[in-house]
Amino acid sequence: MTVLAVLGCQWGDEGKGKLVDLLGSRARVIVRCNGGPNAGHTIVNPQGTFKMRLIPSGIFHPRAICLIGNGVVVDPATLLDELDMLTTAGLDMSRLLISDRAHVIMPYHRILDELEESDRAAVGGGLAIGTTKRGIGPAYADKMARVGIRMADLQHEETLLSKLSAVLNYKNRILTRLYGAEPIGLHETYLQLVEYGRRLGKHIIAADLILDRALADKHHILLEGAQGALLDLDLGTYPYVTSSNPTAAGCCVGAGLPPTTLDGVIGVYKAYQTRVGAGPFPTELLGEQADFLRNQGGAGHGEFGTVTGRPRRVGWFDAMAGRYIARANGLTALAITRLDALDQMPTLRICTGYRVNDMLLRNFPAEIATLEIVQPEYEDHPGWLTDTSGCTRWDDLPINARKYLTRLRDLLGVRIDIVSIGPDREQTILLREPFDTLPDIASRYVGTVQERGGNS
């Protein structure tokens, strides 16, 4: 039995969905831990190509129970659309469960998200942060302000009406008095939520009971993080961050698991760097070189947002930021994705550190003003100008590709377990079986310690 977290370690879009889809066959329970429909996964497998926003990527494995954890904010309409899409594709959706403690994205959250972002942009001064305008931030704000509506509330219609009436009265005052917008009607909103509750009711459950049973039965559990750790609310490039904690610690909280159960953390990095929306990006490329890299991978697999469709900003691999995130999350293994996107690049660069004027920085800075003026220190590496998309073993990779990956490993200080060289599940080089190579600590759950021979 192992509890393993899969985290994005840049600014999101690292290819976590593919990794969760790949590892899902080894897990009995797969938990989406944070974020909302602002996070997209594109899954390519023998059943087709699927763009997912809320449902865990492991849903394609017939023995896996997929859980939307308490740390997620759920848009019921989006979730139901995904349910319908996957049901039409022939999947058994009875295996999808939703924590009764997960918060609901309400209609006023989406409206306020758009109004607030527009207001920040109008004021200027760099206040706009490039949100997806899907209500994620306002939903998390209400969660912290203790006025949120949770999935459990959808199952209790009388209590729901009382809570909604109070909250909507408050939100309508903001909408009408501050923004001059139209108020949201109580009656139609309540009826819509009741309908959501009836359609989703069979999926809503006390998630801790599922996880406790999985631990007791010594099943593998896979924790699926959304976004990337550089977007973490506390540790990321604040304020250009998401509204949750897409870190190892955040996965435990968002799943409802104690941190002592976490056995390993796979950090997912692209072989280069991307970002969507505003915020500092020290290694960003511009012009023709950026356009070339952005369009690698063919139609539908280039650097364009799964949720937003926006072109992603692209740049060289940033090992300065990468080391910081590896330390903060206690990574036990690396998964390097999109290596194939570099196949036609004659020269590659890796940022090994930052310099401000004549001073070499020793740590990843918290101040945005500093991040915006740092000068990256680069190493140049020769490309391989060879198609890697058909490689199945480490030794199949061109020597320069292996040298490049080895340098990333050394700079981050974490071993590489997985290399992805294409969007399909099969286009993966698995150097180790992640669940099988983690320490056996199952004894903690039965209260005994087994002695072993040999060196430890």
Key phrases:
single chain; 456 residues; Adenylosuccinate Synthetase, subunit A, domain 2; 4-stranded mixed β-sheet; 12 helices; globular; disordered C terminus
Describe this structure in words.
The chain is of the alpha/beta class. The chain has two domains: 3-95 and 206-430, Adenylosuccinate Synthetase, Chain A, domain 3 (Alpha-Beta Complex), CATH 3.90.170; 103-202, Adenylosuccinate Synthetase, subunit A, domain 2, CATH 1.10.300.10. The protein contains twelve helices and 20 strands. The chain has helices spanning 16-23, 76-88, 107-123, 136-145, 157-178, 186-200, 207-216, 248-255, 287-294, 319-329, 368-371, 399-412; strands spanning 3-8, 29-32, 41-45, 48-52, 65-68, 73-74, 96-99, 103-104, 204-205, 221-224, 264-270, 273-275, 313-315, 317-318, 333-337, 347-356, 359-360, 375-382, 416-420, 428-430. A ten-stranded mixed sheet has the order 9-7-5-2-10-1-11-15-19-20, sandwiched between helices. Strands 14, 16, 17 and 18 form a four-stranded mixed sheet that branches. A two-stranded antiparallel sheet has the order 3-4. Helix 3 crosses helix 4. The longest helix is centred in the middle third of the chain and has 22 residues, at 157-178. The model is unreliable at 439-456 (pLDDT under 50).
